[in-house]
Design goal:
about 220 residues, alpha/beta, Rossmann fold, 7-stranded mixed sheet, 4-stranded antiparallel sheet, 11 strands
Length: about 220
């Protein structure tokens, strides 16, 4: 089997080492030595953007927040699911990830950062959400492997009761919180419902190659 080639690396503000690797046409990002995402599993990242923006429809000037740029697939799907008046912010913690998306990774998702509706914010998405009040039509989080398998330990604050309260306040009435996960977590569904969200978990195709791998997306609407 062809070995993985390390293309680039960077250190996140919290000290976690990120590595961009390539094997053939596939790219992967590792965080702290753990496989965080693969270009071959673009399907579920796109599904997060599509399901999370489905309710937006023809809304005038919708505002979307994507937490975690990754390889750009969720951002691309959010842009494709909204109109010309939309603003889609993407909060990315690590400058190097943005650089990779403007370089080596750019073509994978059709260079979504070049779309004039995209607004890149180099910030911790947790803090970005805390500042907002009834601002977003959707908040889409694709920053961890699951609400209990974290790329950065501080991200626990996104999925705790307090973190969900901040997300609820940052959404407009009827807005949607979307969360990507590699696995099911009924406890997280219950936690969403306890914070006045109407929550539904979707099982989605993970791989664009039809390998049978599935992931999960929560769509939680602010009542």
């Amino acid at each position: 089997m062809q070995p993985w080639e390390k293309i680039a690396s960077a250190t996140a503000p919290d000290g976690v080492l990120l590595e961009l690797r390539r094997r053939g046409a596939e790219y992967r990002i590792w965080a702290g030595g753990h496989d965080l995402m693969s270009s071959d599993d673009a399907g579920s990242s796109r599904a997060l953007g599509e399901l999370g923006c489905k309710h937006v429809g023809a809304a005038k000037a919708p505002r979307i927040l994507v937490g975690g740029l990754g390889m750009g697939y969720t951002l691309r799907a959010a842009l494709d699911s909204t109109g010309a008046s939309a603003v889609v912010e993407v909060a990315e913690l690590v400058q190097a990830v943005a650089d990779w998306n403007r370089g080596e990774l750019g073509a994978l998702a059709g260079r979504p950062l070049d779309d004039p509706r995209s607004l890149l914010v180099l910030a911790d998405v947790r803090l970005h959400i805390r500042k907002a009040r009834s601002l977003y039509d959707a908040i889409l989080l694709d920053v961890d492997n699951s609400p209990s398998a974290l790329a950065h330990s501080e991200n626990d604050g996104l999925y705790s009761h307090g973190g969900l309260q901040h997300a609820w306040r940052a959404l407009r009435p009827g807005g949607v919180l979307g969360v990507w996960s590699i696995s099911e977590d009924p406890r997280f569904t219950k936690r969403l419902e306890q914070q006045s969200f109407e929550a539904e978990m979707h099982r989605v195709e993970g791989s664009r190659k039809g390998r049978g791998r599935h992931h999960f997306v929560w769509i939680a609407r602010r009542r």
